[in-house]
Each structure stands twice: as C-alpha cells, then as structure tokens.
Specification:
alpha/beta, Rossmann fold, six-stranded parallel sheet, two-stranded antiparallel ribbon, binds 5,6-dihydroxy-NADP, binds zinc ion
Amino acid sequence: MQNFIYHNPTKVIFGKDSIGKLSTVLPNAKILLIYGGGSIKQNGIYQQVVEQLEGHSWCEFSGVEANPEYETLMRAVSMVKNENVDYILAVGGGSVIDGAKFVAAATDFEGDAWDILAKGAKVKSAKPLGCILTLPATGTETNTSSVVTRREYNLKLPFMSDHVRPQFAILDPQATYSLPTRQLTNGIVDAFVHVMEQYLTYPVNASVQDRFAEAILNNLIEIGPLVLESKDYDLRANLMWNATQALSGLIGVGVPQDWSTHMIGHELTALHNLDHAVTLGIILPRVMQYQKEHKREKLLQYAERVWGLSRYDEEGAMDLAIEKTEQFFRDMGIKTKLSEHNIEADVADKIASRLEQAGMTKLGERQNITPKDVKQIVSASF
Ligand code: NZQ
Ligand code: ZN
C-alpha cells in the first residue's frame, strides 16, 4: 500500500427529514443560497430550506446549469462580493455543488479566476460552504473536486482544493424521489465508474480499499435495477451512501488511480453535450479492453469477486467481465456506443489533440495512455 494522509472533515447529516437540521449547522453569517434550474422549487426542498434560513441574513442565486458554466458562476461571484456574503449554501446535484465550490474559490482568488481551471493556479483560500445534495452521483458533497465548463472555449476543466470541501453535507434520501429516471441512471453509472477509476489499476495489497470498492460495485449492481423501479426509502438511502462513498476519498487512499475515462469523458461533454455519466458508460468498457494487459491482475480480481467468474479461463473471464460491465450500463439505460449518439468518427482525432493541448498526454495509473492511445480508445467506442 502507498503512503497516505487521510482527513475528511465534512460533517454528514444523513437520513429522513435531515434538511430539517440545516439550521443547526449554519453559522451566524450572511448566506448565499445557490441552486440550479428550479427542481428544488418543484419538489418542495426550496421551501424546507427557506424555513431553516429564518433568522439568518441571506440572498439567493439560481440558474446554475447542468455542467456548470464559468460565466454564470462569475455572476454569482459578483453577487457574493456585492452582498458581502460570508457563507455559501449549495442545494442541488453535482453541478450546483461544483459550481458553489468554484464560486467559493474564485471570490477569494487574486487575479483571473479562470487560471484556477486553465492553469491549475493554487487556491489559497475560499469562502466556507455547506451543501444539501439532491442527486446521488458525483461524490462532490464530501470531496475537494469541482468541474467547470467554459462554453465560449468548449472547455470542461476540473480543479481540486481542500479549501472547497463542504463543511457539512445534508443527505436526505427522500430528496431523490423527484429525480427522473435519466438522472437516477446517471447517478448509478457515475458512482460505479468512480469506484472503477480507483480500483481497476494494479494491485498494491490494499485489502480494505479493494474490498470496500468491491462492496460498492456489488451494491450498485444489486440496487441499480431496483432503484429505477421503486421509491423505496432504503433503496434510495443505500444508493445515496454508496454514491457518496464512491468518491469521498476513502477508497482511493494508498492506491494508484486511473481517471482516463473521466478525462476523455469530459471532452465528449464539452464537444457534444452528452451527460457526464453517458460519456463514462461509453468510454470505460473501451479503456478496460485497451488496457487489459496492464490491468490484468485487478481485472481478474474484479471478474472473480464482482461478477463471480472463475479464473480457470483467464482471457474469457476478463472479456466477460468487460462485457458484463457494459451490459450493466445498458441495462441502466445508457447508450454505450458513440454511433448511438450520432457522433462522427473525427471526434477521436479532436479529443486526442484537445487533451494534448491541455497537457494531458500521460493518462492512466501507469501514465501510459498518450493522445495516440486516446484516439484508438475513442475510435473503438463506435
Ligand atoms: O438544475 P436543477 O433544477 O437542480 O435540475 C437538475 C439537473 O437538471 C436535476 N436534479 C437534481 N436533483 C434533482 C433534479 N431533478 C429532480 N429532482 C431532484 N432531486 O438533475 C439535472 C442534472 O443535475 P447535475 O447536478 O448536473 O447532475 P450530477 O449530480 O450528475 O452532476 C454532474 C456534474 O458533476 C460533475 C460532472 O462533470 C458534471 O458537471 N462531476 C463532479 C465530480 C466531483 N466534483 O467530484 C466528479 C464527477 O466525476 C463529475 O465529473
Ligand atoms: Zn464522474
């Protein structure tokens, strides 16, 4: 196992009616409530939040898009400055929470805030924030990452900072009842791929991380189809906690990580506006196939422990595990081929050169996925 430091100070308030505990964790400060396109008004969460804000000085910013946009977020930054906001409360899915993280960092940043994303400029401080999660998927509610899109450049870029980790995350599984099937599907597949990016690499004898990752994968395979059919509270609770744990940082400590599927996927969203999870469902099976030899040991372990496949026929077990992974995504409703999204073959060249321009020339846990390999991986996705 590799050395690591683990510190995740996000306070998680989990369970039925937990939004009712918001007032107990909000500081006495001027608060900005930031949210998306209005789903929280339709499902009653906005009202619950407003009740909890009673007695606080607060203002609101709405309209954070799916795949949050830089320009929108910079308008929120102006509001934070003009209204003297000192605490940010994000209520929504990954896009709203990621957006709030960027706003928190950009407000304090000296210089051009775009540099945080484009040049990896160091975030030295940020406005404190807390969140209420309405879509189990990204894990952003307890982690340090954020992904922001700048439409004028067709760029979708991540940044990470300890300063933007939410101080609290309220997770009420009932908030998921209003989710359309498409978003539930996205959540299941995104969480699954988060685990795979941290698990399907090479062995370093990290037994807790491995078994914990396998547990999440097995859970998602088991509850995925059921969640799409039912509003059973316990199913939703389990989906929510599995998705949080998939990217809280815990299963990723002390192990090599891949993330090539995500980096290629972000390009597909930037260029073709595909949902984040859809891009992952398309690319992951191809990365698994392309990197089969480099991932051999973990792929066999995955085949055996997650899909119950015998190692007797190693080649067959690996191929079947890849096939079953893709079939799982398809069963969830994801179209896993680029041709099913009317995307032209030249996208492979485009993505390879865009990643090269962005300096992402050595992807994967072995840094052996070059733009030339990316081109082949994308080409195999039709
Ligand atoms: O905008 P509103 O009205 O809130 O509607 C949203 C949006 O249209 C809707 N929604 C959310 N909760 C709902 C709901 N509709 C009904 N009922 C509810 N309870 O769902 C739509 C999609 O929301 P979005 O936040 O975009 O989805 P998701 O949570 O999947 O987030 C995706 C974003 O997160 C990034 C992705 O790249 C993408 O930009 N990621 C962030 C990560 C991180 N910070 O660690 C890791 C991930 O890999 C990912 O890259
Ligand atoms: Zn993801």
